[in-house]
Task: inverse folding
């Protein structure tokens, strides 16, 4: 793990001076989006890592950061299966119920392993059940 791999939050002091206030280390983090996924008025985050380390005890190829306030986050992989090589991610109200859902795009070569995401181009739809 490189000391720069992960999710960083930099806060602007109003004069375009930024200072790092939060860091969560993750192998190969490639994209993070900030949205109010839980509809409580603050920004949560979703992160993908194309090069997540498979030897880690928990899957970190997708992580959800639920904002608890004051730059404290409850981090979960939402039980997304191991083996995804997520290249793209976006959020929108896919089921039109008033909350944001997440779409993950996967592309992986090789033979599938039991219990793993199958190789090839795939989407993973994460339905938000807040509403």
Result:
């Amino acid at each position: 793990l490189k000391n720069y791999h992960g999710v960083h939050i930099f806060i602007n002091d109003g004069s375009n001076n930024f200072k790092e206030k939060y860091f969560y280390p993750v192998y190969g983090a490639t994209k993070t989006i900030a949205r109010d996924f839980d509809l409580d008025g603050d920004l949560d985050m979703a992160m993908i890592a194309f090069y997540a380390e498979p030897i880690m005890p928990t899957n970190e190829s997708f992580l959800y950061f639920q904002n608890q306030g004051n730059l404290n986050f409850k981090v979960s992989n939402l039980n997304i299966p191991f083996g995804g090589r997520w290249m793209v991610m976006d959020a929108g109200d896919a089921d039109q119920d008033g909350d944001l859902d997440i779409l993950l795009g996967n592309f992986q070569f090789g033979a599938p392993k039991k219990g793993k995401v199958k190789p090839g181009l795939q989407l993973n739809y994460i339905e938000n059940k807040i509403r």
